[in-house]
Design a protein that fits this description.
The chain is of the alpha+beta class and 232 residues long. It is 27% helix and 23% strand.
Amino acid sequence: MMYRTKLTFIFCLLCFACFAQKKKQVKPSAPIVPPSRADNAVLEKRMACKYRNKYSPAYRLKFFPFNQNKMVMLISFEPPEISAEIIYTDTTKAPINSPVKEEVYHALLEKNKKLDLTRLKEKKVLSALEVDKLTNILYNFGYTSTKSYKGLLIAKSDGYRCYEPRNAIAFLDENGLITEYIEICFECQRSKVSSEKISIGELCENKFELIRKYFHTIGIKYGTTNIHNLKS
C-alpha cells in the first residue's frame, strides 16, 4: 500500500511538472508584416515640412550658436583639394585584409581659425533681419506629424552617402575667428556641424531644399543652382 501511495505521489508530481511546463510555453510571435503602400504614403506625408509658428524671433536667437556670435555668414566654396593620402587596413572583410586609401582634405572651416577668404567663391554677412529669416526656416519648420500611425513611426533620413560640401553657415566672433559652423552639401542633403550642441531643427523631407532656396535668394548661387548637375 505504501509503495502504491509513493507511485501515485510521484505520478502526480510529474503531471504537475508537465502541466506547468506547457503553461510556461510562449506562443510564437506573429510574423512581421511590412507596411503597405497606403501606410507608407501616410508616413511620407507626415515627413513633409510644415510651418509651425512655435518660436518667436527673440526665442530663436537663444538657440546655440546664434546666441554667442557677433557675425553670421553664408558662404560657398570649391570642394576641398586632397592634401594627403593615408592607407589603413580594412578588417571588415575578414579573413582577407586589404589596404584601403582614404583621402585627407585640408579643412576650410576650423574652429578658432581665420576664415580663408581666398578659398571662397561667395560670402554674405547676414543682417539681423536675414538672421531672423534663417532661424525661422531652421526652427519653425518641422515634420507634419511625429505621432505613430498603426504603430509605425516616420523614418528620419540621413541623406545620401555622398558628401561634397560647397556651402556653409559660419559663425564668427568679434575678431573674425570661426567659433562654430554648419557645413552643408545640398546635393547629398547632408550636413556637418562643429559642435553637438548645434541643431538645424527637425530634418523634415524638404528642409534642405528650404535652406537651399534661402541661400540662393540671399545671393549665394554656387552650390545652390542646378545642384543635380554639379558633378557633371
